[in-house]
């Protein structure tokens, strides 16, 4: 097992169970990779060196005694909006955060599956933006092109997996924050059904639009991590029926009716799909057609769905911002968003929440004609580091919507979506979303796995510094 890049999640678990490698060796290799790249990629906010090695030794004793759990001894990472006992949860903010006393439910379940948490990955301030940088920790960079962002807000998790520092990682997705960085780093990113992976100690994160999801190089690894992290706290308000994501990887999806949706949902600001990205997504649609699926252009009836997103998103920012130890250190844009959220928390928020049922009915009716929607994940390749960092609030919103107008409606709906790699534009990765109705993860995963078997996207790694990334892979 080579120490320079992480072996996949499933392969690591198999090798540990077969005694080919120790957990301490795998964890030590992951920690060495993190240390070697922290000055360049800057993927981690917290690195649990001593704790992770100690936990690996405990895992090795369990393995030697014949213990078997799905991820026993495997190193993984989680985003820094998730509680890990003994570590701070800064969520991209500056200031001194106290260590938390208990694991969040998703982390608790990963540990119950045997995983070793090697660290907490960087995220932009309160997860608001599709870039991962800020004064609290610097800039996290894209392993494919370090001058560009890996996206956000789960950019640290995406960079860590894409660079092979860890085999897989958890992120969270409130407006595409798993799918966007997955798209921009050539990964699988699963945004599951609301409640599939608990966000406890918050029963609802950002008024229900944010869910926890998985990032990995292969569909099987993303599904395995989803199975390990899935489940609910006793007090969770959303409790979808259990599923076996890994079983779906090997399942034939059947002949599907797929809607190719290239039109961005309506927003108050302009958004235009770049022709090069459009070409990659259309090419992926052609591959689906060649696999026997019926693909035709059609757009779901989004209507004014954006009016329901803003109150929920800004109210969530206000909730998180009220808990930071040093509010004066927050970005001016964060303070402005929190102020708006406090204004919208009453009647506008209640109206936005009530609108979800009608949206489910209207957009759900679209699935009477189609099984899956194929859409761009973003409208553009990843921007350069710093491109949005110093913008004002309105200019940031404009730039975000121009680059990332496609992902957020599924957060309002609470339904699953899976990013799959769609190729490269000028050496920069771009992706496409497979979007389904409620509890459709198995269908989306089986379709993604069918594409992966044909396109073999996981065989590509980011280039070394003296190499050039491929310009197209479809």
UniProtKB/TrEMBL annotation:
InterPro entries: Amidase (IPR000120), Amidase_CS (IPR020556), Amidase_dom (IPR023631), AS_sf (IPR036928)
Top-level taxon: Bacteria
Pfam short name (any one): Amidase
Coiled-coil annotated residue ranges, if any: none
Domain (Amidase) ranges: 26-444
Family of this protein: Belongs to the amidase family.
Protein name, entry field: Amidase
Organism, scientific name: Streptomyces shaanxiensis
